């Protein structure tokens, strides 16, 4: 692949968007490669993914403005759909995805980070949806996910005024979980991914599903979704292993994803 690299590090998968000449901006080719890379992840082995950008300046500086500049209405809509389809695949990916935001996360960059389960960032990160300054709306889910994550009032201010925010502000309003010095970001992402990977994979996946599907519905239906996914964990080898380890006061657990 030209713009996306993938490395499996034990039970952790690392996806890096690598298009340095455009600050890792997302054109159709990058979106296509991201789609392919997600399809290629070995879900038997890999228990958590990290998504980052190459270099120390930019995570993803948005959708590619040069590519978008001459699109017709129909092509614009199709480009939005292409991005949305890939981001939705990422959001619904069976295992947790951590965005390690190592610099600019603007437009499509903020949007792809919001499609991940957890966001952490470096001190130089900057988040924003600057699209209205380009004459368009956010188009890869920004109008929807930003409001859901930080509330409609703050999302509307950021989007209408095209106001970019610092890592510190992103932390204060809950857009990221933690801010690190640049050199500590990837070690922190790996540490977090490792602590996810050491838990029972079916239980982690079912937790993700319960949270995400439950948030899309009312509390009564959401509780039923949880009950089913909770019940689904029983009789698995990993449920037996996790509970036996507790009862036997054994620290080491051997979860086998079954
Ligand atoms: N698309 C295409 N190229 C981009 C890009 C983008 N989103 N962001 C940066 N680049 C390119 C620049 O054109 C430049 O290329 P050249 O060297 O060939 O001129 C190169 O990357 C370096 O960028 P700058 O010289 O601008 O770097 P800087 O340090 O001065 O500024 C920046 C950095 C503030 C991130 C600035 O590049 C910038 O504002 N980028 C655009 C950010 C943006 O508006 N993103 C939203 C895009 S719209 C969108 O994402 C729609 C959607 O929701 C789907």
Percent of residues in β-strands: 15-25%
Oligomer: single chain
Helix content class: 40-55%
Describe the sheet with the most strands.
6 strands, mixed
> How many distinct beta strands?
10
Gross morphology is globular
Biggest sheet: strand arrangement: 1-2-3-5-7-10
Identify the bound ligands: acetoacetyl-coenzyme A
Give me the number of helical elements. Answer: 11
Radius of gyration: 19 Å
What topology does this entry show?
Blueprint (H helix, E strand, L loop, with lengths): L3 E6 L2 E6 L10 H13 L7 E6 L4 E3 L4 H4 L4 H19 L5 E5 L2 E3 L1 H7 L3 E5 L3 E3 L13 H9 L1 H10 L3 E2 H6 L5 E3 L1 H16 L3 H15 L3 H15 L3 H11 L11
Helix pairs in contact: 1-3, 3-4, 4-5, 5-6, 9-10
The chain binds acetoacetyl-coenzyme A (CAA).
Give a verbal description of the structure.
This protein is of the alpha/beta class. 48% of the residues lie in helices and 16% in strands. The chain has eleven helices and ten strands. The protein has helices spanning 28-40, 65-68, 73-91, 108-114, 142-150, 152-161, 167-172, 182-197, 201-215, 219-233, 237-247, and strands at 4-9, 12-17, 48-53, 58-60, 97-101, 104-106, 118-122, 126-128, 165-166, 178-180. The protein has a six-stranded mixed beta sheet with strand order 1-2-3-5-7-10, sandwiched between helices. Helix 1 (28-40) packs parallel to helix 3 (73-91), helix 5 packs across helix 6 and helix 9 runs antiparallel to helix 10 (219-233). The longest helix has 19 residues, at 73-91. It is globular, with a radius of gyration of 19 Å. The two termini are 32 Å apart. The mean pLDDT is 98. It binds acetoacetyl-coenzyme A. The site of acetoacetyl-coenzyme A has 22 residues, from helix 2, strand 6 and helix 4.
């Amino acid at each position: 692949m030209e713009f996306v690299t993938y490395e499996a590090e034990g039970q952790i998968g690392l996806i890096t968007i690598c298009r340095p000449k455009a600050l890792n901006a997302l054109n159709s080719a990058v979106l296509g490669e991201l789609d392919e890379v997600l399809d290629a992840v070995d879900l038997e082995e890999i228990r958590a993914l990290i998504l980052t950008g190459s270099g120390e300046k930019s995570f993803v500086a948005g959708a590619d403005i040069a590519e978008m500049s001459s699109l017709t209405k129909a092509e614009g809509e199709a480009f939005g759909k292409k991005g949305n389809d890939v981001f939705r695949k990422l959001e619904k990916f069976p295992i947790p995805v951590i965005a390690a935001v190592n610099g600019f996360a603007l437009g499509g960059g903020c949007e792809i980070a919001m499609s991940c389960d957890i966001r952490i960032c470096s001190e130089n990160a900057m988040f924003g949806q600057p699209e209205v300054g380009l004459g368009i709306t956010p188009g890869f889910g920004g109008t929807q996910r930003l409001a859901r994550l930080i509330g409609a009032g703050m999302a509307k201010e950021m989007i209408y005024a095209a106001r970019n925010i610092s890592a510190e502000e992103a932390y204060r309003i809950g857009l990221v979980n933690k801010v690190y010095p640049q050199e500590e970001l990837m070690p922190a992402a790996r540490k977090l991914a490792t602590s996810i990977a050491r838990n029972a994979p079916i239980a982690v996946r079912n937790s993700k599903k319960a949270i995400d599907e439950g948030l899309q519905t009312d509390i009564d239906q959401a509780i039923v979704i949880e009950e089913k996914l909770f019940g689904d964990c029983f009789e698995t080898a990993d449920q037996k292993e996790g509970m036996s380890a507790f009862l036997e006061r054994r620290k080491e657990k051997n979860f086998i994803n079954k």
